[in-house]
Amino acid sequence: MKRTIGGRKNILSNDNLKTLLQKSGPAKKGIETSASWEGWFTPAGLTKKIHWGTLSRASGGKPPFPTCAILQEPLKHIGHRMLVMSATLSLFLFTSCQTGTANNTQEQHSLVSNAPGSPISIPDGSGPVAIGDVNNDKKPDLVLALSKTKSVTVLLGKGDGQFSASASTTKVPDSPGEMALGDVNGDGKLDLAIVTHDSYGAMLLLGDGKGGFTVPPNSPIVMKAGQTPHTHGLALADMNRDNKVDLVTVNNADNDISIALGDGRGSFTIAPGSPFAVGPSPYPLAVGDVNGDGWLDIVATASATGPSRTQQLPLSRALTLLLSDGRGGFRSIQLPLRTGEPWFAVISDVNGDRKPDIVATHHELNELTVMMGDGQGGFVEAGGSPFDLGHYGFSAVCADVNRDGKMDVIAAGGDSLLVMLGDGRGRFAPGPKIPTGQGTWRLDGADLNGDGKMDLVTSNSESSNLSVLLGR
């Protein structure tokens, strides 16, 4: 039996869930209740399924976004997420985790385990990896960039954390770098955007809903005019609230960010005011609504890795927040840091107050910066920040890996994953290092086996393999 109730909420909170459920009467065991609502983040709305007091996973709708796992907890302890984009490692979910029921004395070494068949050999060398359901079977798949062969390949998920051999390989004109998944033409099938270091163009690959991709005639989308292309970040997100996916790229050498607005049919035009100036040598950006106005904002880093590094370093002790003005433009705000050269950033609620915070790694430094948000676009560095990672970190994700109901940080650390365990108040302590492979610079996370726990995938470029790590 099924019953469906509806509402219009941009954030699915505990209170929203209770209100929706009350409208349909008391939950009954054996009856599946779906709470559906529409928001700016997806044209066809998004569906959350509640199985007898448990929020399990996002599904349905006409996705510009891949299926996203939601932590399974009793209803009164639900961790909620606002899905702000589809992406790979440079794109992020605003995640919030409330109180939990896990045992705080859980042994640290049991956080994850290798999935059967992991690591997966990638003879052509592994690059950035994206997670999404590209064949519409409701099982997460892996899309992998192969720079040596100038191609992308798809590994279809079996729904249990294992993946089949390459289902399809698509040649592209240039070596693929950053990737993002999203439905750019509104056909309900995930498409792929790719950028490469030495071009201002964003390549588009249209998905066929079976795991294959084709290059459309209008690809690539030229994001700006300039003389020094060096693209180091990419996002697919609805930046102007028209329910159509837009392109966002990071121009490392030009110290700015470009936005191209999508028409919902696969074509794009440069946004008014683009590009937008940010700090020196930005790397992959974070996108999310940091002030609760329903408009997506951008957090840009400042690695100061350009040819004018000596002059750039004094300017690198800040993140740049591009705060949407609600009219398609952005107001630039500098967020001062105690440590310079921020490298990769994540937007996440790390202290459970339902206000987005920012976590950042730093270029070849062991520090992890934590910025606490006030929910209105203001940020202050947390007490005790920066925290010692023990090794410099690259890309990062936030997830409750030890199941204690408190948000943790996991960062790629070169040959392992670096785990920082959160106390739920914005402070972090070192957890176990999780061995992976050489060249672990990128990771992504999702529920790969349907058990409601965050799983992790790392691309180990120097070991020519992928590690698939299942949450325990």
Description:
With 472 residues, the protein is mainly β. The chain has two helices and 37 strands. Strand 19 (246-251) and strand 20 form a beta hairpin.
Q: What labels describe this entry?
A:
37 strands; five-stranded antiparallel β-sheet; globular; eight-stranded antiparallel β-sheet; mainly beta
Layout of secondary structure:
Blueprint: E1 2-7, H1 14-23, E2 32-39, E3 42-51, E4 55-59, E5 80-82, E6 94-96, E7 112-114, E8 120-121, E9 129-132, E10 141-146, E11 151-157, E12 163-171, E13 179-182, E14 191-195, E15 201-207, E16 213-214, E17 221-222, E18 231-237, E19 246-251, E20 256-262, E21 268-270, E22 276-277, E23 286-288, E24 297-300, H2 309-312, E25 318-324, E26 330-336, E27 342-348, E28 357-362, E29 367-373, E30 379-381, E31 387-388, E32 396-399, E33 408-412, E34 414-422, E35 428-446, E36 455-460, E37 465-471
Parallel strand pairs: 1-2
Antiparallel strand pairs: 2-3, 3-4, 5-6, 7-37, 8-37, 9-10, 10-11, 11-12, 13-14, 14-15, 15-16, 15-17, 18-19, 19-20, 20-21, 20-22, 23-24, 24-25, 25-26, 27-28, 28-29, 29-30, 29-31, 32-33, 33-34, 34-35, 35-36, 36-37
